[in-house]
Predict the 3D structure of the following.
Amino acid sequence: MSENATPAAPPAGAKSVLGMVIAASFMGVLVAAECLIAWLMIPSVDEVVAQAEQRFQDRMPASADPVDQLAPDDQKKPTVEVDLGVHSFTTHLPARGVNLRIDFQLYGIVRQEDKAKFEGLYQPVANRIRESVLVVIRNAEVADLTEANLGLIKRRILEKSNRLLTKPLLRDIVVTDFTLVEQ
């Protein structure tokens, strides 16, 4: 062979394979870098749960008891019980094929200084309040009616009664002599 011969060029297929390997390596490094950044930036499940619980706690009052939510001065003022009547209802549960007989005595708690105002507002709407109690009881789930302190039932009655009175004079609801009989 001659001395002036040029070295043989690699075949054309070798260049394209080498280029594809370099491009694939570059893409692999790029995807790995994106995954690393995402892993560092996106919070874990535990962090998300902790943040959600903290937001929930920040929005909730310290206590679910309406008396605890009153201003400290309101808690010190004397209160009286007002009679909201004896209530007896029968409701049918078609899914279970039974009737429920519900009887109870209902009292409202008002500040002593608001008692006269309450009585003046209560008399014109007494029957509507009685009807709203009926609606609350009939719309209640059996689990709500068997709850030890009837918390959900009492809150709903309190809310509807104060709305009908047009002023939040009722501070709390007391349910006594509660009986629930399945017939």
In short: The helical segments are 12-41, 45-59, 72-76, 115-139, 142-145, 151-165. Residues 12-60 form one domain. The chain has a mean pLDDT of 83. The chain is about 50% helix and 20% strand.
